[in-house]
Amino acid sequence: MTVLIATEKPFAAAAVNGMKEIAQKAGHEVRLLEKYTSPEKLVKAVEDVDALIVRSDKVTPEVIDAARNLKIVVRAGAGYDNICLEACTARGIVVMNTPGQNSNAVAELAIAMMIFMSRNKFTPGTGSEIQGKKLGIQAYGNVGRLVAGKAKCLGMEVMAFDPYVSADKMKEDGVTPAESLEQMYRECNFISLHIPATPETRKSIGYDLITLMPAGGCLLNTARKEIINEAELEKALTDRPDLKYITDIAADSQAELDEKFGKRVFATPKKMGAETAEANINAGLAAASQIVDFFATGNTRFQVNKK
Fold first, then answer.
1. What whole-number distance in Å separates Cα of residue 133 and Cα of residue 153?
2. What is the percent of the chain with per-residue pLDDT over 70, rounded to a whole number?
3. Which of 52, 59, 72, 149 has the lowest CB atom count within 10 Å?
4. Does 71 lie in the same domain as 211?
5. Does 23 lie in the same domain as 156?
6. Directed axis angle between helix 277-297 and helix 103-118, to 10°?
7. Where in the sequence is the domain holding 29, given as residue range(s)?
8. Nearest 5 degrees, angle CA 143-CA 145-CA 149?
9. Span 129-140, mean pLDDT?
10. How far apart are CA 285 and CA 66, in angstroms?
11. Does 307 score more than 70 pLDDT?
12. Is 158 in the same domain as 20?
């Protein structure tokens, strides 16, 4: 089988070498497409491959149409909204992610963001400490649990809301389960977002929730840009001059937000959640291993487009 590693933003060399070793040891051919400058180059490159590994690259219906032999796509990371699941499913192509491989990197970034905003973005002036503050975690999955553990070690009180995780599980971790999303926003000094972008969650974080936060509250987004209602975020920050917002995914209106709210908002120059050497290697090796296992045994454990 032929495996294409297609990454506009390349993997680390150690990750690429490891992925090649895993696939080639199992008898597969590996091709590499890095730093490509147009979608057409990806469309051309997939024409005769059997498997595809991507990072944040767009796997569109056009890509799927061109990939006549494609059997599996693996997103090296947790989120997979860059892949057209409908087109893949219609062709019988399995789509997987690599959950958990980037989780620690994202969790560490969330903690760093809280400290950064509490210290006025490291500019002169009196800041505050996060010890003794209350953190709310929206979605208690791999990343949320790691954020909770690290925050507790720093002396924070942690609350979480996730309708898919039992209250008993949260309590076992020393986390207070919120009875409602509104309760969590109302009680927490920080809210850390870890929800995926789905039809139900897109633009779900807006004025009514954000303005429930206590005085000086800070909203952190290391999840997806699309979950934020940007117009309502701007209105909330305007009506509540004490609130702050920091994100790992710049808003479409980020320049306007920066100009209007100054120290109260911040966006990383590019998505940094998985930008560690460890996460880069872990996700890449996991993607290659999953492809090898799929062809050898039919394992679809991490498939995300199951009917």
1. 12
2. 100
3. 149
4. no
5. no
6. 150
7. 2-101+275-297
8. 115
9. 98
10. 26
11. no
12. no
